[in-house]
Write a structure and sequence with these properties.
By secondary structure, the chain is of the alpha/beta class. The protein has a 19-stranded parallel β-sheet that branches. Strands 3-4-5-6-42 form a five-stranded antiparallel β-sheet. It has a five-stranded parallel β-sheet with strand order 15-12-9-40-38, with no helix packed on it. Strand 4 (96-101) and strand 5 form a beta hairpin. The chain starts with a helix and ends with a strand. 41% of the residues are buried.
């Protein structure tokens, strides 16, 4: 039997060559698959990074909008994750899209969400921002500086004074009068009195006076003496805070001359170099701190000055370097409508009528003068009065509300927003 070894050798070589070729092709395919996979990973990583930075751009854009307008409200809708979402706007960055949800402020804070979409690669960032704020404490229904209190009305609350208290009115609760030689005279006090002297015609429950002082008033309870004088207390709003609020107002712009509000109008932050008049039936809504270099006059009935709803539970300020005058009844001075929100009326005038309220007010507001007087007349009733001097005439009342004890005010230039948390979802 003849065997063709050359033929068999050729066949074996062919088989080996085939398998080597198949192995080589497999290696090439595997390498191509690995390269393709790595390219996809790199591409997706780049797209993912781009989507993230697009989401970041959305956050930065929203913060810039808030810096320019802290009361900004977005009314548009956009689709996020297949869900139609309100308070949302979009903008393009190259081939990518940022969808930003900017809700209304709740309790002086917002949670902003930004979605970056880069050709189907999604990244989300959420930031919690709140308005930088400062706390002002109004511990007393009436807190008075060295100008003292002339009370021919009724105070429903405690009183602290760095000056004398006189008049024929009533104070329901306790009274503290600081300083050497300062006294209370003629006033009826339902609670206790701590003062250097308590003089004739005053009637108090329990009296503590300073050694060396006088005590010729009527004491219905007990009398005691203390050796130390009663320390003064500064007014709760320092000049530095007032200066900050003035600067905050000017950040929003300057209106030169006198300003009249005749209908419904929103103002602030803003500085007005002249006088401000709010006409009969008009509504002035404060969207930021308002400073008036001249006088402020609120005319007739059904006129309102109120804080914008974006203040939420925060307080807001209107400052007059002149006099603030309300002569007509049923004027509304109020906060945003949420609990804890108060409108602060502040005057830096040295006049006894730096703030002059002649008739009843509606709403929740606090009154403050740094160097002049608060004058109340004609059965007017206010929530809280603090200033260098307070004059209460013709049956006026101060009805202290415990909610006014701690008021948080938006502070910093333009009511600046500050981050509380920042992270990817």
């Amino acid at each position: 039997m003849n065997i063709n070894f050359k033929s068999q050798k050729g066949f074996i070589i062919s088989i080996v060559t085939f398998f080597v070729l198949m192995i080589a092709i497999s290696i090439v395919i595997t390498m191509n698959a690995v390269v393709f996979y790595r390219q996809q990973v790199i591409t997706n990583s780049i797209k993912s990074s781009q989507a993230y930075y697009v989401a970041e751009a959305g956050i930065e854009d929203s913060l810039m909008k808030l810096r320019n307008n802290s009361s900004l409200s977005i009314s548009g809708n956009c689709t996020i994750g297949g869900v139609l979402t309100s308070n949302c706007y979009t903008f393009d960055v190259g081939n990518s899209t940022a969808s930003v949800v900017l809700p209304v402020a709740i309790g002086g804070s917002r949670t902003i969400t930004s979605q970056g979409d880069n050709r189907g690669i999604i990244k989300k960032i959420q930031v919690s921002y709140s308005i930088d704020n400062s706390l002002i404490n109004f511990y007393y229904g009436v807190s008075v500086g060295e100008g003292g209190l002339i009370n021919n009305g009724t105070v429903h609350g405690n009183v602290f004074s760095n000056g004398n208290i006189t008049g024929n009115g009533t104070i329901d609760n306790n009274v503290v009068i600081s300083g050497n030689g300062h006294s209370i005279k003629d006033v009826y006090v339902g609670g206790n009195v701590l003062a250097y002297s308590c003089l004739s015609s005053a009637s108090v429950q329990n009296l503590t006076y300073v050694s060396g002082g006088s005590h010729t008033c009527t004491v219905r309870g007990t009398t005691s003496v203390q050796e130390s004088e009663i320390a003064d207390e500064p007014l709760p709003i320092p000049q530095s805070q007032i200066d900050d609020w003035k600067s905050e107002a000017e950040v929003g712009g300057v209106f030169v001359g006198n300003k009249t509000v005749s209908t419904s109008q929103s103002l602030g932050p803003l500085k007005i170099t002249g006088n401000l008049t709010v006409k009969s039936g008009a509504t002035l809504t404060l969207t930021g701190t308002l400073r008036v270099v001249g006088d402020i006059s609120v005319e007739s009935q059904k006129t309102k000055i109120k804080l914008d709803s974006s203040y939420s539970s925060l307080g807001g300020v209107i400052i007059s370097d002149g006099e603030f005058e309300v002569e007509h009844p049923n004027i509304t001075l109020t906060g945003s409508g949420q609990t804890g929100s108060y409108l602060l009326i502040l005057s830096t005038s040295t006049s006894d009528e730096a703030i002059y309220i002649k008739n009843n007010l509606i709403g929740n507001s606090a009154l403050f003068t740094s160097a002049g007087g608060i004058t109340l007349a004609n059965n007017v009733s206010v929530t809280e009065a603090t200033g260098y001097k307070v004059i209460m005439n013709n049956g006026s009342e101060i009805q202290y509300s415990t909610g006014v004890e701690n008021i948080y005010f938006s502070s910093g230039p333009g009511g600046r927003w500050k981050p509380e948390s920042w992270g990817e979802q």
